[in-house]
Structure formats: structure tokens, C-alpha cells
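User: Quick sanity check before I run a bigger batch. Here is a single chain. Can you write out its predicted 3D structure?
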Amino acid sequence: MQQDLEQRLISVIKDEKILSDIILRGVTSDEFIIHTEEFSFIQQYFNKYNSIPSMAVIESTYPGFKYLDDVKDIEIKYLCDELFKSSARRKAIAYINTSAELLSLDTYGAIDSLVTKLTNIRKQTTNSKSYADGDALRRYDIAVKNRDNITKGVTNGIKTGIKIFDDNNIGWQPGNLIGIIGRLGVGKSTVAQYLGCTAYKAGKRVLFISPEMSAEEVNLKFDTFMGKMNGYTFLNDKLQVGDIDLRNYKKWLEGISTRKDWLTIDSANGKKFNINNINGYVTEFAPDMVIVDGVPLLDGVGEQSWVKMMDVSYGLKAIAQNNKVVVIATSQANRAVGDEMPRPDQVSFGDAFMQAADFGIFMQQNINKPLSRYITIPKRRTGKAINTPIEITFNINEGIISM
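Assistant: Done. Predicted structure follows.
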């Protein structure tokens, strides 16, 4: 019964760890139909006070809800799985009913639409597990591999494109979520794409999710960045009007056309991206790195912003962990920042994004030098944070970013 299922799952949320576990499994308020408000309230309360509301507070705020004392932590996986199945059934039935009305008007169009919608109803993946004791010897093999890599000057993980990391052979690790934060127009998208190009040059597969820029814009920037990394100069503004050495350009394009390791997906069809369809693209393309250019543009973030940002942030982290990929995502700093360097507490829509992220790269304009920026990395889950601003070269038109 749906009510009992939702009631049991909410009743098991006794602390931050359990809430985080449930969110990392992919549960959002969208999966609930009876106790949606109660689940959203718990998330909002946690975002505001960094603790879980008491049973008394929930029952007082929502008189129709009663805590169940017999729910055990061991039931979490089962309850989450059943909630996903229930949600999937509702969505599938709704899609089928809607498509049935369209079949007589546009048979093939209705079938294509139904297939697309049903494909986006993905089975949720669960958290990866590792025994600290039983799997211990695996860590010895990793340590030997890391030592050998450093001896050979090989980056452990995916090369970052950030000098302070790459000089020490420290790369992005599978499962990392990297957030890039700054005000409008500071160049977050460009830095994200530069980091992606660095990975691509190292032979990695990159999925670029673009809710705002068209695929054509992203791909022309790709030519500018990757061309520069490979000895070509394709000024981005000239590329857009074809005012370039076409012979060299064709030579470059013929060279890279042998690979299919950079996939750009934009919102040209008018449908917003969400965690489920992003996860679907990851499953289909199997990238090493996923770039999500504009977390606030994902479906629903603007509504109930605290709750949705938490859902999306931990959803992106779950995609990184479950698929063993690196996820780089850009988001906004709030207006209070002005021309200053943003702080972690100045991320728009609350601090859930930085809570979920392993690294936070913050950006600031250099008002005296248009072709440079400042960055800090105040959030770094492993290693020392970098709070002193570092000046970087930022020449988008020539494809030169020096971090």
C-alpha cells in the first residue's frame, strides 16, 4: 500500500546519515504522492538547521502523519526500491494513457513519443559498497599502482588541467563531483569545457550536457580549445562566420572525426534535463567525465529551490559514484557577491550543492584585466583548500586558459 510504504520510509529517517543514504539512492519528493510535503519538510529543515526534525515536530506540523516505531534501518534499500517501482508504474501508466489518445492522430509520432518517455523511466542504481576489511588487499594494489604512476610522471585519475594538481600527478577520481561557482558571465561554462577538453586530450570520453548553449556553440568552442591544444589556431569569433584557413580547419576536422568520444546534448527539443535522463545518457554513452553546464537550469530547481537543489546535487553525486565517472557541474553565486570572490555560503539555492561536491572551484572577474580571472578552491574533500586567489589566463577567443 502506497501510504504505508511512504510512511515507513519517512519513519526511518532518524539522522543525517540515513537522509543522505536515501537521497544518494535517488529518492526525491517526486516519488511521493501522499507524504510529499513531509519528505520535503525534512529536507528543508535539514538545509536550514543541519539536523533532522523530531518526530513530535513532524506530527505536529502534519497531523495526518504518524511515525511507525517498528521500521529498521535494514529496510531502507527495500523501501527505496519499492518507492521507485511505484513511481515508475504511475509514470508509465500516465504516458500510455496520454499516448493512446494520440495514436489515431499521429500513430508513429505517438509511438516514438511513448518509447522516449518510457526509456527515461530508469531503474535506480544503488550505492556502491566496499568492505574496509574484506576488500583490504585491493587497496595495496591501488597504492602500488599510484606509486608507480607518480614515479613515471603519470597522473593518478583524470588529468585536471589545473597546474597545482597536475604538477603533483593528482587527478580527478571516479565518483568525484566538482562544482564551479561564480556570478553570471564570469566564464563558468568555458572553464568547465576547458577541463573537459583536458580530459579528452588524455584519451577520455566526455559527455557535455548543455541546458542553455546549443550543441553548435559547444562544438565550435571544442574546435577552438582542442585545436589550440594540438597546434592549430581557430579564433572562436572567426569560426562562427567561417573566416578561417579552411584548409587547416578541414585537416583538423578529418583528424578528430575518427573518434566518437565527445557527445554534446542540448535542449533543442525544449525538454528540460533531469537526473533520470542524465543518468540514462550516462548509461548509454559510458563516459569517463560528465559536464552539466548549469545546475539551476535542470528541471524543477527553481521550484522549492532548497529541496530541489538538494535532490539535484545529491542526484549528480549519485551519478558520479554509481557510474564511477567524474561529474563537473556549474552553478550560480548569489547577487550579494557583486564583483567579489564568492564564498561557499553564497551559492544560489542554498549550500546543498557544496555539501555534495568533493571540490568547489570559485571564480571571480578581474575587472582590470578582461583576459584573466581569479579562482579559489575552498572546498576540497581531500587535501588542503586553496583560499588565496590564483590569477589565471582566460582568453576564450584564442582557446587559451592557463590554470
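The longest helix spans residues 76-102.

User: Great, the batch can go ahead then.
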